[in-house]
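Take a look at the protein record below with the fold in mind.
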Amino acid sequence: MAAVPLLRQDAFTGLYEIAADRDGGSVFVASINGFDANNAGFIHRLDARTLQPLQTVQVPRLAFALGLNDTTHTLYVGNTMDGSLTAVDSGSGIVKGVIQLAQPEKNDKGEPVFAHTRKVIVDEPHNRVFVTSPGQPGRVWIVDGARNTLTHTLISDGIWSAGAAYDAAANRLYVGQGGVNEVLVIDPDAGAVVRRLSTGETPAAQQDKSANFFINIALDTQGQRLFAAGGQKDQVYVWDLPSGQVIQRIAFKSAALDIAYNPVRGEVVTSHRGNGEPGSGFVSILDATTYSLKRTIELPVHPNSLALSPDGQTLYVTVKAARSDKQAAWRKDAKDIVVRIDLNVVPR
């Protein structure tokens, strides 16, 4: 099959995160068919090269985030609304179990609610799973993947703990959030915060009115840099980890949502849903050394989540349809899209 710069599959609705397996054969996409209690979550397995659907698995709770352990062949699904994690066999699609992380609380109507889950990060060497929770305060849960049990719950001194990335060599978990200290550095063995990083842009007295909210982060483990996206400003922050200092602020025409570091190509990739309405979303590819923009790929309407192939030469993106009939791009019954981009022949 000849290389195609861009393929799209628009057979789904309610798409969220996407993950690629290590052998390069499959990509997994999480979706929902609504937010009501009676709605379901789904995991779609697609052929990584053609994007043809191979399997659809219904899971017991709404599916948003994904984390894949290729060693144990376990796909972890973040059930945001229920504060839980569903473990699925990535080969057979059999649901192994549900791990309840948050305990029920009562809202002002007396109804049971749960702290939400956000990012799901897998630590394959230690068979652990890290899950963030963007509340006030934020939380981080650490799960034993062998036993499917919760081992640590960390309560953040910040708010909206969301983005996460793991440095396996250093055994350190990084969590992006809001508040005075927008990045936490966690020792997962101890279940404790060992360091905090700050932009210095939120005064202590204004902790709950944070200047930034880092919804997604990415690590350059070799170069010891951290890239943070999703701030209230239209820019990505770059930290030098040894010094703990912000060394670059990369400006864009609209805020970045997801972010991925590609060590193979020396690039940083960001998704942008588009500011305002109707908004035209796009993906940016940056030179990771100079921080200069190499190319922009228009992907209307709203690019959401990113995943890179194991060889770093292919990018997968979920793209959401217009949400409202007030948007110029709105179409009745429009589908969300999975896009496959060959980075060697990507259109400019």
The chain is about 0% helix and 50% strand. The CA atoms of residues 234 and 280 lie 15 Å apart. The first strand starts at residue 6 and ends at 12.
